[in-house]
Amino acid sequence: xxxxxxxxxxxxxxxxxxxxxxxxxxxxxxxxxxxxxxxxxxxxxxxxxxxxxxxxxxxxxxxxxxxxxxxxxxxxxxxxxxxxxxxxxxxxxxxxxxxxxxxxxxxxxxxxxxxxxxxxxxxxxxxxxxx
Length: 131
Description:
- By secondary structure, the protein is mostly helical.
- 74% of the residues lie in helices and 0% in strands.
- It has helices at 2-8, 13-25, 29-41, 46-59, 63-75, 81-93, 97-106, 113-122, 125-128.
- The protein is elongated and about 50 Å long.
- It starts with a helix and ends with a helix.
């Protein structure tokens, strides 16, 4: 599907973004990241590209990289649900439960923050197909 979109519009940022997501979710993380970076160079919304780059890092278990991408966005006031969920998961995975708990409480993500954190700590994104 994305290949057909790219044949019609070779400079489609959205097509490269979708291609990157599909590649990453199929386990082709390097190719997925390259496609997402291409979409960013074609001026897809930065928030979208950064969150998708973080998703690739999460799938690759590079949680600190995901935090490094997402935390500045959050601190700038970006609070899309996917960004928040990816950030909280990544914070838990790097061991920063306190900051994860603060975000869960401040953004009203759950009334049972500690239980959520315990559950997130047990998730293996590559096995669960998160993204």
